[in-house]
Structure formats: structure tokens, C-alpha cells
Structure prediction request, 248 residues.
Amino acid sequence: QPDGKGAIYAATAGGLFRIEAQRMEQLSSEHTLSCFINPDGSCYTGEVDGIYYIGTHARTLLNKVEKATHFYQDERGTLLVRNIYGQVFRLSEDRKEYIFIIPRNASGEEARYNNTLYRQDNTLYVQGHVGLFYWEADSQSLVEMPEMAGLLRDAQYPQFIYPDGKRLWFTNNEGKALRVYDRSASPEERERWNALLYPMHHLQVLAMDVAGENVWLGGNFGLIQGQWGQQEPDYNRTNHIHIRRIIL
Prediction:
């Protein structure tokens, strides 16, 4: 994760590292899944047993939200966290208390799991099995978007999600079957784009980057680079059927 000043923070199984130019500094040695960089250079880390604060001279356990994978901050400074189980939390101002964020029309213990938290167009969203919601900072609550429920029904329980402008790339709960949704595209265009992804449906996508028409996919399979705007020649071919034999 970049800090905006030219340095990159890398969360790894061997700890948290800060990389700047050709110099590397190890900030911790514990298994780290994610990090959130503060303007002063300190950071919050999602680790196996909780969320930690790493400052200039100290590493302190803040709370017991284990295996946090995503941190997002709203315009009021509230920090929202999602962990590996799909639980979404709102942290208190001192980051020591955490409150479950649950969609209003969800019920039962399962509503706390398999939710996805992401940011698109400067808005925070929570996608769960009961629909899509956006985070309203003033009321500190989720607001349902029922008009999107049918369009994003295939995005339930996504393990991986990647916002790209107006597009949203997402997988199933195993990180496979990558699909893309573009709110500005016609149904025919969306179907054509998703057809191009079929050969990669068996791959577990763990990282992604889109730069223009270049699409990069990373995972335990290695690295795949594709030209999004390049049409497969076979799609333009007209097939002719020749009947050679009929048996009644």
C-alpha cells in the first residue's frame, strides 16, 4: 500500500515492511494481512489475533478484530474494517472498541458473515447476501440500494472484489469465476465481456489491476495480462453446418 509520499508498505507473513527507493525497513515481524497508513506515518495493521497500532517506538494491540483484510475511512474519520470472515466493523475514535455493521433487513447470526466492504467513486459499499448498501457517514449506518439487488445478484459472497471506475470486478466465495459488471454498459456488452473471462473461471484471483485496456490478474497460478479491447478472432467467424448423414 502506498503512503502518498513515495513509500510502499508491504504486509506479509513475515511482518510489515516499508519500502522507499532502494531502502527497506522492517516495522514488525508478526504475520500481517493488511495495513492502513496514517498521515503521520504510523499505521494500523490487521494481524492474526487483532488490530495493532505501529508508531515510531511502539507496537500496541488495539482490539481483538482478528485477521482484518481491509481498512477504509469515511469523510468523518470513522474507520471501517472487514476481516477474512466477511465481518464488517466500525471502530471507535480511539480504535479500541468495535461495533458490528449489519444490513438493516438482515437477521440471524449468518448476517454477520460473508459481507464485502469496498470503495467506489468515494463511496463505501457493503455487499452481502441480502443486497447492496452504501455507508452514510452522517447517520453512521448502511442505506440499502434495492435498485441494484437484481443486477448484482451474482456478486453474493465475493471473496475478491475490485472497483475500476464504473466497473466492478468480483469473484465467487472461493475467489474463482471472475465476472465484471459495468453499470453504464448494455446487457449485451456485459455478456460479451464476461464471455471473455470464461477460460479463467477455474483460477483463484487474489490481486488485480486495470490500466486502460490492459487487465492484470495475479494469484497462485502466476500472472496473467490481457488486452481488454482486443476481440477474439473466432467470435467474428460465421459457422457453417454440413449434414453428412441422417438416421431415423
